[in-house]
């Protein structure tokens, strides 16, 4: 379970998170919606341990551990995964080598046996097939020359290979057409189960037609101002965020 209590955070002296209270039980997918500048991406960065964000109050516990006391690589090894809104390009770094190196780094941290090149290729091809991606993706440099949809699918490929217990999807639907949105969502849904939880951060209700959440939360002004079922997302789509803040 992820439990956030009174979380406050700032960047460069500007307070962004102003008291986040949120619980995501094990095995559930929760969506966070809100307008630009509300603190959605800041929350994802704080949870993943990105530098430059100062925690000024509150606590975050995950499976009984103090998440904020862990280094980013420790959070990843423990099963936390962040899918970026804007995946970066890594010229000169082959995608297959990057993915295998990342996977084996996590396996080493967990005391598990590393996978050799042949075993990795077999596993990667299975995941590529599920995501309707070509094996050629493995031969390219990380995200270099990728379309927006390919970058997001590559993020979901990473997630499928790492098999996290907690995923944070920071506006994964940004810039996706309908076909890419469906494929990415199917990749996320394939991980659903009693041992997988997720925070899905999005502006739009359309993603939640594919990844149906257990709960929806509205984040505005650095605080969760309202929570509800999937119907809340539909209400926001129809009426906008002004009604949510007034509710």
Would you mind describing this structure in some detail?
This protein has helices at residues 40-48, 72-77, 95-109, 117-130, 148-162, 178-189, 230-239, 241-246, and strands spanning 2-11, 14-24, 29-33, 54-62, 65-66, 80-83, 90-94, 141-142, 166-170, 197-202, 215-220, 223-228. The protein has one domain: 3-Layer(aba) Sandwich (Rossmann fold), CATH 3.40.50. A hairpin with a 2-residue loop joins strand 4 and strand 5. Helix 5 (148-162) packs parallel to helix 6. The strands form three sheets. A six-stranded mixed β-sheet has the order 6-9-10-3-11-12, sandwiched between helices. Strands 2-1-4-5 form a four-stranded antiparallel β-sheet, with helices on one face. A two-stranded antiparallel ribbon has the order 7-8. The protein has 247 residues and is an alpha/beta fold.
Taken from the alpha-carbon principal axes, the silhouette is globular
Spatial strand order of the main sheet = 6-9-10-3-11-12
Structural class: alpha/beta
User: Helix and strand string, N-terminal first?
Assistant: EEEHEEHEEHHEHEHEEEHH
Biggest beta sheet attributes: 6 strands, mixed
Number of strands: 12
How many discrete structural domains?
1
Domain ABC transporter: 2-246
Pfam families: ABC_tran
Protein name: Fe-S cluster assembly ATPase SufC
Organism: Sabulicella glaciei
Give the helix/strand layout.
Layout: E1 2-11, E2 14-24, E3 29-33, H1 40-48, E4 54-62, E5 65-66, H2 72-77, E6 80-83, E7 90-94, H3 95-109, H4 117-130, E8 141-142, H5 148-162, E9 166-170, H6 178-189, E10 197-202, E11 215-220, E12 223-228, H7 230-239, H8 241-246
Parallel strand pairs: 3-10, 3-11, 6-9, 9-10
Antiparallel strand pairs: 1-2, 1-4, 4-5, 7-8, 11-12
Helix pairs in contact: 5-6
């Amino acid at each position: 379970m992820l439990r956030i209590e009174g979380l406050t955070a700032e960047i460069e002296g500007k307070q962004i998170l102003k008291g986040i209270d949120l619980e995501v039980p094990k095995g559930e997918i929760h969506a966070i919606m809100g307008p630009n500048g509300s603190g959605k991406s800041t929350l994802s960065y704080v949870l993943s341990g990105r530098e430059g964000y100062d925690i000024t109050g509150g606590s975050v516990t995950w499976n009984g551990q103090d998440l904020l006391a862990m280094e980013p690589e420790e959070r990843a090894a423990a099963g936390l995964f962040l899918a970026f809104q804007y995946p970066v390009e890594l010229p000169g770094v082959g995608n297959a080598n990057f993915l295998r190196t990342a996977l084996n780094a996590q396996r080493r941290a967990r005391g598990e046996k590393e996978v050799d090149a042949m075993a990795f290729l077999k596993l990667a091809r299975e995941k590529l097939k599920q995501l309707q991606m070509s094996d050629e993706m493995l031969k390219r440099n990380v995200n270099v020359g990728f379309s927006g949809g390919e970058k997001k699918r590559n993020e979901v490929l990473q997630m499928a290979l790492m098999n996290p217990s907690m995923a944070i999807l920071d506006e994964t639907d940004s810039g996706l057409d309908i076909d890419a949105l469906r494929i990415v969502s199917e990749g996320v849904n394939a991980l659903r189960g009693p041992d997988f939880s997720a925070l899905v951060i999005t502006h739009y209700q359309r993603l939640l037609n594919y990844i149906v959440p257990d709960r929806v939360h509205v984040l505005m002004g650095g605080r969760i101002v309202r929570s509800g079922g999937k119907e809340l997302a539909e209400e926001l789509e129809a009426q906008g965020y002004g009604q949510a803040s007034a509710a």
